[in-house]
Amino acid sequence: MTLLGLAEDDFTLLSGQPKAFHYTASSGKGLDRNFCPACGTRLFTSNAESYLGMVVVSIGSLDNPEGVRLCAGEAPLAWAIPLDVPQFETMPG
């Protein structure tokens, strides 16, 4: 799972209402893990006591992950290296 940390003020939820579950890490500090209420996909982590003011987003949950750039001038998703395994557009079944 590829994660992207960003400032809380730079994060905007465009649609839907995720289901949040409060979790206490082994450090004893809390955080909220937010999931899609329909399918259970982990979307983002918020309210992390260890990272105040930050939101950690699962890149795979974005509608347009190609628009994510980690460094100025870097090609979109140039940092993502595909695995040498079969790839599927949808869940095989």
Automatic annotation (TrEMBL):
SUPFAM superfamilies attached to this UniProt entry: Mss4-like (SSF51316)
Superkingdom of source: Bacteria
InterPro entries: CENP-V/GFA, Mss4-like_sf
Pfam family, one: GFA
Annotated CENP-V/GFA domain residues: 6-68
Molecular function terms from GO: carbon-sulfur lyase activity; metal ion binding
Metal-binding among keywords: yes
Keywords of this entry: Metal-binding, Zinc
Keyword Metal-binding recorded: yes
Family: Belongs to the Gfa family.
Name of this chain's protein: CENP-V/GFA domain-containing protein
